[in-house]
Structures are given as structure tokens and as C-alpha cells.
Design a protein that fits this description.
About 45% of the residues lie in helices and about 15% in strands. It is α/β, with parallel strands linked by helices. The chain has 2 domains: about 5-120, Gyrase A, domain 2 (2-Layer Sandwich), CATH 3.30.1360.120; about 125-430, P-loop containing nucleotide triphosphate hydrolases (Rossmann fold, 3-Layer(aba) Sandwich), CATH 3.40.50. The strands form 2 sheets. Strands 3-4-5-6-2-1-7 form a 7-stranded mixed beta sheet. β1 (about 5-10) and β2 (about 15-25) form a beta hairpin. The radius of gyration is 29 Å and the shape is flat. The two termini are about 20 Å apart.
């Protein structure tokens, strides 16, 4: 437990109905009492809310509701007080200033959640899940975050570590008391199945990691095509708004236009690029150059061709240059007379940017190509947290090293070292093994009031 009491504004600054100023620490109730005119907060029951006024001497600052939560049944496992005041910036900051003058310290970024972790209220995956919930943009990303918050990820990691610990213990006994165990049997009959099982389970999670990351962060999607094939119209149709300028003049889009949509659980970060063609226009040349850069960076490409025009060398170059990339081929302007040779395409969608049903079919295809599952199909093995995934990959490699050591008939203590490294790495995921630098860096990404 900490000796000092921290305070911060826990709601976004700005005009709103209410703001919340939160205190946590051994003197939270005492400090709040010094500025509160109402019931004596030191005598009220835990988990209760009380009406009164915040005062500065004889001056009334605001009419408030104060919630009191006594340790240990609080988020931080310390005494916590939350002051619900009116949502003006001046009044909120005035209350914060008063509490600082009465003895509280301004909380560091993420310090409330950090205290919850260090006081054993939550583990590191649950702490990260708090931020994931705040940043969630879709139902899917929210559900993944909630799995972390409820401890499902922690339980999975603990299970992994226990299997490893049992094996490591057997190896240690084998090394220290060789007369009790047969080394060949330990290596082949006991260790191999454990490693094989863990490799399989972690591999499943890592395979789902790409989908999880897409569901959490969205997917960078570039709309590519030569000028005047309807790229901007398609962007506007997907966004359901007139974001890009649409004309019959080729080369209207000289720079790229961006926008984001929530596509049934998938955030598409759309980029409408300048049309790819040879041009003497200096500005348009820069736009075309940027388009080629975007093609290399985008996670998904939507290639657009004109149903009412014959394919040009520029069209064929777009097809060739994007071969092997994740892409969807869209033949636009199907409401016009056909001139394009469709036999040159293996798979395509025939659409009109002005037909809602066609756009819905395209949206469905995007989700299919990105392997996006519905929220009810998700489980705790869909982990979208980059740090946790990186640690799982590291542990996976240590297990592969152990497996290779067994094949090479290396000494049993070498195998034990690989398994211990994997055990420690998995421990870093839930915060049971780690450094102060890791903890401080992780919680610094939180907002002040969290």
C-alpha cells in the first residue's frame, strides 16, 4: 500500500453535465472531508453517495454528489472518493486545486490502475484490458477487451505456466537426484507431449492474432485504380458521405483522401488515392508517387476498374503490381454499357457505386477477405494486445528451442533452461515477472484519471 493520496480529474475536460474528480489513498476520505459541506464522510458507510457542497472557506464552489468507497473493496484496494461536480472546466479545476492544497498529490498517468495492479487487485493483462475498453471502437474489440478484464487471459497464461512448471520441476529432480528418474523417459515420454501441446495452443492464438489486431485497430485499406474509374464515388458510398470530390474530369483526386467506417465489427481506415497514370502535371505526379507508397503499406487493396471502358496498359500494370497482395477487384459502373473484357479477371465484384445493395455485397466481401468473425464467435484466445502477442511469440520460440534440443539429444539442463525462459516470458504477460521500467512504461500510456 502507498503512504500518499493521489487525485486527478477522471473525465474529459470540457463542457459537460458532470465531471468526476477522484482520490485514492489512505487520506482520501480525510482530504475530501476538508472541502465538503455535508455529512461527515469519515462516518458514512462504504459504497454510499452523499449530497453536499464543495467549499473554500466560506465560499461555495459547487453543489456535488460525493461517493465513498472504503478499502479493500475498491478498484485500487485503497480508500477511494469520487466527487461528481458540474462539468465546467473552471469549476472542475478549482476543486482539483483545493484537494491538492489540502494534501493530495496529482496522480501520474495511469496511476490509479497502476495501484490496482501493484496492490494485487488486477494483473497486467487486466490492466491493459482497461485501456483496451476505453479505446474500443467496435463490438468485437470491446468483447476482446472484456475477456482480458474478466481474467480469462490470465487463467490461460497461468495454465500454460503450470504445465511448464511441472515439467521444469521434473527436470530439476532428474538433475539433482538422477537415481530417482530415468533421463530418457523424462525427455521423450513426458517432456515432448507437454511441449507439443503448448506449441499447438500458442500457435492457434498467434494465428488468430492478426485477425484480433485488425478487429482492434482496423485495417488500412487503399482504393486503387487509374483516373476516372469511380474510386472517389466508391469511397463516398462506403463512408455514406461526400468526403471526396467527384467529377468526370480525370485526375480530380491529386492527393489522397482518408476516412474511417465501422463495418459490422471491422474498422476500415479508407484511403482514396490519386489515379495511377503517366502525367505531365507536377502536382499529379506527386499524388501518383504517394499512391505507389500507399500500395506497399496498405493491408487491403480495393482495385477499381471501369465496366464501361476497355482495359489499358495502366490497368494491367495495376493488376501485375498488386499480385500476391490481399486485394479485392471491383468492376465499377455496371449501370453503363460494357466495354471491359471480364475474361481477364479470375475473381471480381460487379458493382455500381450508387447501388446500396452492391455496396453491401462489397462490405461483406471485405469482412470475408479479412477473416473477420462475429462477436458471438470470439473467445479469450483472440488476443489483440501487441505486447502480449510479442511475449507469446517469444515463449513460442523458447519452446521450439527446447524441442530442437531434445531432437539433438542435448543435456537435460539445456532443455530445462529453454523451458524456464518460456515460463519467465509467459510470466511477463501477467506481470508476475517483470521490471519497474516495463510497469512504468505501460501505465504511462493511460490518461491521468485512470
Amino acid at each position: 500500500m502507498y503512504n500518499d493520496t493521489i487525485v486527478a480529474i477522471s473525465t474529459a475536460l470540457g463542457k459537460s453535465a458532470i465531471s468526476i474528480v477522484r482520490l485514492s489513498g489512505p487520506e482520501a476520505i480525510e482530504i475530501a472531508n476538508k472541502v465538503f459541506k455535508g455529512p461527515d464522510l469519515s462516518k458514512v458507510s462504504s459504497h454510499t453517495i452523499h449530497y453536499g457542497k464543495i467549499i473554500d472557506g466560506d465560499e461555495i464552489i459547487d453543489e456535488v454528489l460525493v461517493s465513498v468507497f472504503r478499502a479493500p473493496k475498491t478498484f485500487t484496494r485503497e480508500d477511494v472518493v469520487e466527487i461528481n461536480c458540474h462539468g465546467g472546466m473552471f469549476v472542475t479545476n478549482k476543486i482539483l486545486e483545493l484537494l491538492l492544497l489540502k494534501g493530495a498529490r496529482l496522480a501520474e498517468a495511469g496511476e490509479f490502475t497502476k495501484r490496482a495492479f501493484l496492490n494485487g487487485r488486477i494483473d497486467l493483462t487486466q490492466a491493459e484490458a482497461v485501456m483496451d475498453i476505453i479505446e474500443a471502437q467496435t463490438t468485437n474489440s470491446l468483447k476482446m477487451a472484456n475477456y482480458g478484464l474478466t481474467g480469462h487471459v490470465k487463467k490461460m497464461i497461468i495454465n500454460f505456466r503450470q504445465k511448464l512448471l511441472n515439467t521444469i520441476a521434473r527436470i530439476e529432480v532428474n538433475i539433482d537426484y538422477p537415481e530417482y528418474e530415468d533421463e530418457y523417459q523424462i525427455t521423450n515420454d513426458y517432456i515432448v507431449p507437454v511441449i507439443k501441446e503448448l506449441l499447438h495452443e500458442i500457435n492457434v492464438i498467434l494465428k488468430r492474432a492478426e485477425v484480433s489486431k485488425i478487429m482492434k485497430e482496423g485495417i488500412s485499406t487503399a482504393i486503387i485504380g487509374k483516373p476516372n474509374v469511380g474510386k472517389s464515388s466508391l469511397l463516398n458510398a462506403l463512408l455514406r458521405e461526400e468526403r471526396a470530390i467527384v467529377t468526370d474530369i480525370a485526375g480530380t483526386t491529386r492527393d489522397f483522401v482518408e476516412g474511417s467506417i465501422n463495418l459490422g465489427g471491422l474498422v476500415l481506415n479508407l484511403i482514396d488515392t490519386a489515379g495511377i497514370r503517366k502525367t505531365e502535371d507536377i502536382v499529379e505526379q506527386i499524388g501518383v508517387k504517394k499512391t505507389h507508397e500507399i500500395i506497399e503499406q496498405a493491408q487491403l487493396l480495393i482495385l477499381v476498374f471501369d465496366y464501361s471502358s476497355t482495359l489499358t496498359e495502366e490497368d494491367l500494370e495495376i493488376l501485375r503490381s498488386t499480385e500476391g497482395k490481399k486485394r479485392i477487384i471491383v468492376i465499377n459502373k455496371r449501370d453503363l454499357k460494357q466495354k471491359i473484357d471480364l475474361s481477364l479477371f479470375k475473381e471480381y465484384l460487379l458493382v455500381s457505386s450508387f447501388n446500396d445493395e452492391d455496396i453491401e455485397i462489397l462490405e461483406k466481401k471485405i469482412k470475408e477477405v479479412c477473416n473477420i468473425v462475429e462477436a458471438n464467435e470470439l473467445d479469450y484466445t483472440y488476443i489483440g494486445n501487441a505486447r502480449q502477442i510479442a511475449k507469446l511469440k517469444q515463449a513460442y520460440q523458447y519452446l521450439l528451442d527446447a524441442q530442437e534440443s531434445i531432437k539433438q539429444e542435448r543435456p537435460i539442463d539445456i532443455i530445462g533452461l529453454d523451458l524456464t525462459n518460456a515460463w519467465n516470458t509467459l510470466g511477463e504477460i501477467i506481470g508476475e515477472v517483470g521490471t519497474d521500467q516495463l510497469i512504468n512504461e505501460l501505465f504511462s500510456q493511460f490518461c491521468l484519471g485512470k
